[in-house]
Amino acid sequence: MKGILIAALVLLSGCAHLSQPATVERMYVIECGENHVKDLSRWTPGVNVGKAHVFADHCYLVKHWKGWFLWDTGNADRLAPMPDGLTAPNGAITAFMKKPLADSLKEIGVAPEQFQNLAMSHSHGDHSGNANLFTGAATYIYMQRPEFDAVYGPEPQKYGFAAANFEKLRIARVQTLSGDFDVFGDGSVVIKSTPGHTPGHQSLFVRLARRGPVLLTGDMVHLVYSWENRVVPGFNYDVPASGRSIDAMKAFVKQTGAQVWVNHDKEQHLLIPKAPLFVD
After folding, report:
1. Cβ–Cβ contacts within 10 Å for residue 223, how many?
2. CA nearest 52: which of 66, 36, 67?
3. pLDDT at position 137
């Protein structure tokens, strides 16, 4: 009888272990530049008129037992030697890159050619600035089909995309998506389709072992304030779709208990360890 009881306990213990959701080994939050703006109200319609603001910009490097996954590539490394940054033609934004992404990856101990998986929340320059670094033969790049069509269509500039950022990706293995996608097939890293800011904008769900699940917003929202108040900038590609994406992700967060990490919110990210440290 005692032997049967021990066997039953071992079986139950194994089942409990199997029922635990899969998690990644660790995630590095990399500082990938800053964007300085003169009038925050462009991103928060009706408030903050004339208020200057600094948006942080982050890339996220995920270590899964199956390999490395990079989310977003930040402002272009070529901006690093520019102490005054690069100002947009309309003067609304000045972009900075204090430390090249290539250097940050080197500190962690990885090189661009080691990546098996890459995805960007969307194709604006502060998220795709270094995309051309990742064209290794083993790298899969995940883009929503509407985003892919906009980037490689006849008028990428119509969407605020710089075609030069993607030129080398023409020879890469780009996998186009039509909705959500489970990167490693175990629920630990899931691309969530959140269109609106751009035609094929996407966000990322990551399960961390100790911190729990996290939702990386991309530019679905630009500030924690925007998330909490369902704020959609008028310049988004599709304003109604943007609102629907926020609503869908609010329901998803309620369902999963995920923390919401807003890429550009500098104040929120002050509380999150930065590479070469990691979160797990």
Report:
1. 22
2. 36
3. 59
Three-state DSSP class for residue 11: helix
Q: Please check whether residue 230 is in contact with residue 222, taking contact to mean a CB–CB distance below 8 angstroms.
A: no
Q: Which residue from 77, 72, 69 is spatially nearest to 27, judged by alpha carbons?
A: 69
Give the mean pLDDT of 123-136. Answer: 92
Instruction: Please give the full DSSP string across 12-51, using - where no structure is assigned.
Output: HHHHHHHHSPP-BSEEEEEEEEEEEES-GGGTSTTSSTT-
Is the pLDDT at 113 greater than 90? The verdict is no
Q: What is the mean predicted confidence (pLDDT) over 97-103?
A: 96
Q: How far apart are CA 216 and CA 202, in angstroms?
A: 9
pLDDT: which is higher, 240 or 11:
240
Omega prior to 112 cis, within 30 of 0: no
Chain CA centroid to CA 165, Å: 17
**Number of residues in the chain:** 280
**CB proximity list for 28: less than 8 A, separation 6 or greater:** 60, 61, 63, 108, 275, 276, 277, 278, 279
Q: Each residue of 196-216: pLDDT tens digit?
A: 999 999 999 999 999 999 999
In whole angstroms, give the CA distance from residue 230 to residue 249. Answer: 11
Could you tell me the fold of the domain covering 2-269? Metallo-beta-lactamase; Chain A (3.60.15)
Residue 123's closest CA among 174, 75, 162, 71?
A: 162
Query: For the chain, what are the domain ranges?
Result: 2-269
Taking every pair of Cα atoms in the chain, the longest distance, rounded to a whole number of angstroms, is 80
Q: Is the separation of the CB atoms in 94 and 36 below 8 Å?
A: yes
- The whole-number average pLDDT for the span 90-102 is 94
Measured distance CA(215)–CA(207) in Å, rounded: 9
In sequence order, the 6+-apart residues with CB closer than 8 A to the CB of 228 are none
* β-bridge mates for residue 213, sequence order: 207
